[in-house]
Design brief:
single chain, 262 residues, mainly alpha, two-stranded antiparallel sheet, 13 helices
Length: 262
């Protein structure tokens, strides 16, 4: 095995010299192919955080190419040892800069990553998820910082409000509902607009009935007419208002006035 590793290092060094000294692009491409197993092995350590493994391999390959371009064949170091931090650094930068849906301080992001790794290890040993206090003790950080990181970690991914939830629902179904107040405001605006076609007596009767909530008998006593006359004034006023709304094409005009008259 040691012989094989030494042989691989020698081949890497030969290819890298061909690329850096002679600008041999085929040697560069061969180094990329030879480095892909290392990229995949390192990317696998970061799988399960919301990104597909193949996406992480692509990101890590960028780090591999940068390492190939930066490597000094005369430095006397192994290329694999030089490339590994470049590859993992590129993957970490990808998570830090592109994968957080909400801006979270870098210190919180880094602690969240440590918590995720340690939580997996502790869960594998105990068969249960560790508590915040246990994680804090294990990582030697205050429990309050662990709690902040756990909350901040939720900002890594957000779901669209139309994201499917269950068999038939969407996320929006769990967080909101139709506000009935908007409909009331719209109805009130339509009624006020329709009142413009009424004369002074009709408008007064409509307001007493539907704004102040008075009974027809009480309205009759207030304005000095019979209850029958109040009923006729209301019927005529609502009919004029309904006709006005229909001419304007107001939505739900007839039902609206029927509801107001109820």
């Amino acid at each position: 095995m040691l012989e094989d590793a030494t042989r691989r290092d020698q081949i890497d060094l030969q290819l890298l010299r061909r690329y850096h000294v002679h600008q041999d692009l085929e040697a560069r491409e061969e180094m990329v192919r030879r480095g892909l197993p290392l990229v995949r092995a390192l990317a696998r350590q970061y799988a399960g955080r919301g990104d597909a493994l193949e996406d992480l391999v692509q990101v890590g390959t960028i780090g591999l190419i940068k390492a190939i371009d930066r490597f000094d064949p005369e430095a006397g170091s192994r290329f694999a040892a030089f490339a590994s931090p470049n590859i993992t650094g590129e993957i970490k930068r990808h998570f830090r800069d592109h994968c957080w849906a909400i801006h979270v301080p870098r210190s919180v992001q880094e602690l969240d990553a440590k918590i995720s790794r340690e939580s997996d290890r502790m869960s594998a040993k105990t068969g249960r998820a560790p508590t915040a206090a246990e994680l804090a003790e294990r990582l030697s950080v205050p429990a309050s910082q662990v709690a902040d990181a756990l909350v901040g970690g939720r900002g890594y991914r957000t779901l669209s409000l139309d994201h499917p939830v269950g068999e038939t629902g969407e996320a929006l179904d769990r967080f909101g509902r139709e506000e009935p107040g908007y409909g009331l405001v719209e109805r009130k605006s339509l009624v006020e607009d329709a009142c413009r076609v009424l004369d002074e007596r009709e408008r007064e009767v409509v307001e007493l009935r539907f704004v102040e909530g008075m009974l027809q008998r009480e309205i009759a006593e207030r304005i000095g007419v019979s209850q029958m006359q109040v009923s006729r004034i209301l019927a005529r006023a609502l009919d004029r208002m309904r006709t006005y709304l229909e001419m304007r094409g107001a939505p739900g005009d007839g039902a609206l006035l029927e509801a107001e008259a109820a």
